Amino acid sequence: MKDNNPVKDWLNEIIYRLSRPYILVLALIFTLIPSGKLTEALESGAEFLKIDTDAKAVAMGSAYTAIASGIDAIHYNPSGMAALNRVEAGFSHTNWLLGSSHDFIGIAMPVSQGIGDRVEGRVKNTGMVMGLGFTRLTNGAMEGRASDRGRTGGFNAYDQSIALGAAKNFGHYALGGSVKYIQSAIAGSRASAFAVDIGAGRKLTGLPVYAAHNFMPGFALRTGYMMNATAGSVATCAGGFSAGVGLYFLNTGLDYSMSPFGELGNVQKLSVKKKF
Prior knowledge:
The chain has helices at about 5-20, 20-30, 35-40, 55-60, 75; strands spanning about 90-95, 100-110, 115-120, 120-125, 130-145, 150-170, 175-185, 190-200, 215, 220-225, 240-250, 250-260, 265-275. It is mainly beta. The chain has two domains: about 1-45, no CATH class; about 45-275, no CATH class. An eleven-stranded antiparallel sheet has the order 8-7-6-5-2-1-13-12-11-10-9. Strands 3-4 form a two-stranded antiparallel ribbon.
């Protein structure tokens, strides 16, 4: 039976146009050769959002945008949430640099169900999936000093964001987006802003996307390397290497990663995800 849904036809046309090779080439040029003003804008503010929220991503050198799925996708590529066909909750904790800590907690769930093709033995959800995530970087107590270097007491600093996202499958494609409320505070002064993320993905049948070594069912070892590593990224200041392990049992994923930052010490992250 022919589906005469004008909204669906309109969305399929947009997806088709955006997936053309020339669009991908233009996007690549735009990414690699940004203007000076765009570069300044991209490098200003909300630096804590560059910190990975998932230990699996850290262990793979942050090469995770294309394969992010479930609740962690709200940070990397919102369209990845469309892969969920059941409720998933996630939490991660990081011992970040200089005594600070980085935490993430979130939940995603299908809010409408649709029957699609079977993927890995399960029927793919073609309904809407929504997610909510909270990220916080806490710098802890700091010691204040006056111009004469005398003590003025302590103060705290933190950065945090709340993201609300939605995603949906359209055949081999997935589209998603999220709205973030961002807040930074130091010594009683606060600043806030909003941001929007938009993501898309396409299922590549028969093509490998990444590789990890599984010694046995439910156990994986991973390693990654990030080129041009900086302190703002999860890669290392001393070469860009990272490594980690993953355990999967009873619909629960437990991941650990470690990244050395040279003289600044090691950064360790623990992530837990559970499907219900």
